[in-house]
Amino acid sequence: MVKKILQTQDETTAAIVISLANYIGGTYTDDAIVALLERDEKRQSQLLSGIFKRTIEDGYEQFGADNRIADFLDTSARYLQATGYRNAARVALEVLAERKPILRSPDLPSERLILADVYAPGLARLASVRLASGDVRAATRHLDEASSLIAAKLRQEWTTAGEGTILALRNLAPALRLIAQKRNEIVVKGGLSRNNPDHDALFRAMQAAMFGEMALTLELAGRRRLLADETTRNLQRTYLEASAQAERAKQIAAYLYEAGDVDGALARHKRTTAAQSDAARRAVESRLHGGLTRVEDIETVALADARARLQDGEALVLLHVGSHGLYGFLLDRSGRSLAWRSDVRAQALENLVRSLRSSGDISRSLFPPFSFADAAKLHGLIFGPIGAALDDYRKLVIVGDGPLQAMPYGLLLTQPLDQAASDGTALRAANPKWLIRTHAITLVPSVRTLVAQRTNREPIRVEKPFLGVGNPQLADAGDLRSIDIAGAFKGSAGGLADVSFLRRLVSLPETADELRTIAKLLAAPPEAVVLGAQATERAVRAMDLSDYRIVAFATHGALAGEVNGTSEPGLVLTPPTEASREDDGFLSLSEIIGLRLNADLVILSACNTATSDGRPKAEGLSGLARGFFAAGAQSLLATHWAIPSTSAVKITTGLIGHRAERPEADWADSLRAATLDLIDGDGPSEWAHPAYWAGFAAIGVLPLGR
């Protein structure tokens, strides 16, 4: 019978069916062939469900291979989906979702938690299948299950040690992105959704999908730095052991509940271990003054909590790049929430960003080509679906991922330009409607960062207004602040920079004037500016940086990952005679994290400090900016590309001047004012070109009430 059925198929289909049937059916291969070729979906579902269950029982359970069942079902679903058997794939995923966790011992995690990297993606894909069939309720239920499982897995990894969280996040990232995109499909109808009750779940899903590896890496780096002290490390170990005992007592009490609690012994044990765990946690927090990252700090933020941290006239904007769409979310203090979707492929979006970023390269022309059409098109893709709603705000706090992390948003055009300008004079006359004209823009790495920075806390009290480090002792003068980091590490050993290479970098004498001007604006003494031979890595690491309100580094900046992943992003300082661990002339990311800062603002007047750290799929804010946040900076001024020194000086000094005039203003407001002064001022006409101003980025927010 099976042979006759197969004879009705072409050779390719027959080969695929036989291969699939062998895998999912085992000893029931013939039955699986019949089921796969069944045209009635309901009948096919019944047949395949029975085959999967028999295969599990005969091929796995009777041999004690229960831990392989979830992987078998997940792999079956992937094979079936890839070969076009979508209904059959759905059945495999349903059997996976319906599996009851096996409780071998009450003090061990469930099968689902152990195999979260199998179950969670399976549940997310099942939700996608359900949604495609129109069953929104079932799709939502599976998305909720997948989200809860992933959150529990990440929480478990972070609480027990932390190191495994990065691997878990890497494995679960595709599922997180799928969950966010499917929640958007459920909520957003016709391209835009307003104030929907399901916005909280979508808001959380987008955060989870956008939370990257580098954020966790820096959290772990901060944790390791805090735990370097032996006393603190022992307290942390005691807390982890007490926490594990408390969790075990809780599970045992629940497991044996039906058997009865003789003389209340279990309840007493549960209370005792919980109290011991709380006491150990308080001891750690007291030692660190709250410095150790809590598990809550890597979890998503509720809509209401984020809303409470926003100011009037301010909108929080999340932009998540999916493979086939751009997913947006806007929230303001009043509770207004908008969710939208633009149909654009990730590669097309990346091409637009790359096109606009290329306009910052003035190495060949003082007025490089700029695509005004792309600037207007990208604005339409990002903000077009919400129309005039953007006009209700004066400031945008943006969290982006993918290529949008490297996006200089201020150069987007809110209206198309009728005719392209060929020089600075024509550009000023055309008066393009840049986004920076209507909105101050600040970037934050995550919603959690926004909440942490806006949570009410004691104001930073520092005695000294400013420290500037720049103009390292290098080679002859030049104008662009960029280096070939591959050359910087070519002759190095053990991860140290090649000091002979660093010495050949062009010097930046104009940065001395830049720093002195800022110091004068802030009434800082002459010794607050550290230049030339004194601007060394050893000197910076020896300083008490925690007593400065504003810290500026005006020097070369560098990306990482261009030397087979052996180097880090960092800043170039005056090279020593010979490289050592204490001083190789290169202040790297790991060394930056070890600094102690209380700065209201760190100015990174160096190129590329807000761009990707160079690794494939690396995050745009995962370089120096995140490092300085981890060291304690409140806000940052960083750059997307190599800014010409003359306009860089004008922007940074203008920013400080505007802030001095309006101390209540946020740094993003001051940057906007300084940028417009440059565009519309009496300087060289080419300064109207985005190459001279759009590369600057304000990162981070000030506490509420400042």
Shape: globular
Number of strands: 17
Say what oligomer this is. Answer: single chain
Number of helices: 27
The percentage of residues in β strands lies in: 5-15%
| Main sheet properties | 12 strands, mixed
Return Rg in Å: 29 Å
Distance between the termini: 80 Å
Mean pLDDT value: 82
Uncertain ranges: 102-108, 483-493, 561-566, 610-618
Order of the strands making up the biggest sheet: 1-4-3-2-5-6-17-16-15-11-7-10
Helix residue percentage: 40-55%
Q: Which structural class should the secondary elements be placed in?
A: alpha/beta
InterPro entries: CHAT_dom (IPR024983)
Domain CHAT: 375-700
Protein name: CHAT domain-containing protein
Pfam families: CHAT
Which terms would index this structure?
706 residues; single chain; alpha/beta; CHAT_dom
Task: Itemize the secondary structure elements and their pairings.
Blueprint: H1 2-7, H2 11-25, H3 29-36, H4 41-59, H5 69-82, H6 86-98, H7 111-114, H8 116-132, H9 136-160, H10 164-187, E1 192-194, H11 199-210, H12 213-226, H13 230-255, H14 265-288, H15 303-307, E2 314-321, E3 326-332, E4 337-342, H16 346-357, H17 372-383, E5 395-400, H18 424-430, E6 440-443, H19 447-454, E7 464-472, E8 475-477, H20 485-490, H21 499-503, E9 506-507, H22 510-521, E10 529-532, H23 537-542, E11 548-554, E12 557-558, E13 570-572, E14 586-588, H24 589-593, E15 601-604, H25 624-631, E16 636-639, H26 645-661, H27 667-680, E17 696-699
Parallel strand pairs: 2-5, 5-6, 6-17, 7-10, 7-11, 8-9, 11-15, 15-16
Antiparallel strand pairs: 1-4, 2-3, 3-4, 12-13, 13-14, 16-17
